[in-house]
Amino acid sequence: MIGLAGLGTGYGFVQLALYSMLPLSVLLIIPFVKILTTSLTIGSGGSGGVFAPGMMIGAVAGGAVGMVFHTVLPGMVPLDLVPGFVVVGMIALFGAISNAPIAVLIMVVEMTGNFSLFVPAMGAVGIAYVLAREETIFLEQVQSKAESGAHRGEFEVDILEAILVGEVMVPAPSVIALSPADPCTKVFSLISTTTHTGYPVLEGDRLVGIITTRDVRELLAGGDLSRPVGERMTRAPLTIHEGRTLEEALRVMIEHDIHHLPVVGEGERMTGFLTRTDLMLAHTRFIASSGRGRRK
User: Which phi and psi angles does 23 have, rounded to 5°?
Assistant: First the structure.
C-alpha cells in the first residue's frame, strides 16, 4: 500500500483518509514516500504535476495529525473529526507551497462543501504560508527539457557537447546582414530570395541588433514598410561566444524560443551566425561521420 502511495495522483488515498480508513502507521509514512517520488519527478524534469501530489501529501499529513490527537485524546477528538484534519491539511500545505493560500482555501472548501472548516482552515493556511515565506514548488521544476536529466537524450546533447559553436557557425563574411538605416522592405526582399527568417543588424562589424520575421510581421497589416530596420529590430539580442558548445547554444534557443543566435568574439564583434538548422546539420553530419545511427 505504501509503495502504491508514491505512484499516480494519490486521490484514492485522499479518499481513504477522508473516510478514516488508513491506520496511523501508514499515515505517518505516506507523506515522506510521496515527497520523495514527487521530488525525483519534478527535479529530474519528468512529466508530472504538483497539484495532486501536494493535495495528497497535505491530506495524509493532516490525517496523521488528526489520528495522533484521536489516539492521545479520544474524548476530545473523536474519530468523526479526523476527516476535518484531512481537509485542513490539504488547504494548509498546498496553499503554502503554491503561494496561493486564498485561492486554495476557497477551492478546497468548495470542493468538500464543508464551510464549517473555513475558520480553522484559514488559520492553518495562514501559519503555513508565513512559515513557507515566498518559497514555491513551481520554481523547483527545471526550466526546460534541455536541462532535464530525464529528457536530455531527446536532444542528443552528448553529441552536441562535443562540438563548438565556432566549428558550425556561418562565418561573418558569409552572413547576410543589415544596417539600422536599411528600410524594412529590404527585409521582406531578403526573406523571399534567401528563405532566411532572421538577419543580424550591424554597424561596421559591431552587432547592434537582430531582426526576424516576428519583428516585421505586423507591418504586413498596413504598417509603413519604408521605416528603417533600426526601429523594428530587437536591440541587445541574445548572443553566444564561438568557444561555447552546441549544447549550450541549443539550451539558449529552447529557453527563449528563438531560432537564431549571433556569435560574438572579443569586443562583442560578430564573428558568425548560428541557427537551429545549423545545429541539426551538425548533428546529422556527426552521426554520419562516426557511424552512429547505422543498423548493426
Answer: -70, 160
User: What is the Cα–Cα distance from 234 to 118, expressed in whole angstroms?
Assistant: 50
All three cell numbers of 286, joined, read: 556527426
Measured in degrees and rounded to the nearest 5, phi and psi for residue 259 equal: -120, -5
CA-to-CA distance for 67 and 82, rounded, in angstroms?
6
pLDDT, tens digit, 9 for 90 and up, residues 95-105: 887 777 888 77
Where is pLDDT greater, at 200 or 153?
Answer: 200
Cα separation, 227 vs 69, in Å, equals: 74
Q: Please say whether the beta carbons of 238 and 248 come within 8 A.
A: no
C-alpha cell at 220: 504586413
pLDDT for residue 278 is more than 80 = yes
Pairwise CA distance, residues 15 & 247, whole Å: 45
Check residues 147 and 246 and name the one with the higher pLDDT.
Answer: 246
Q: What's the CA gap between 113 and 232, in Å, rounded? A: 54
Q: Could you give all domains of the chain from N- to C-terminal order, each with its CATH number?
A: 2-141 (no CATH), 146-290 (3.10.580.10)
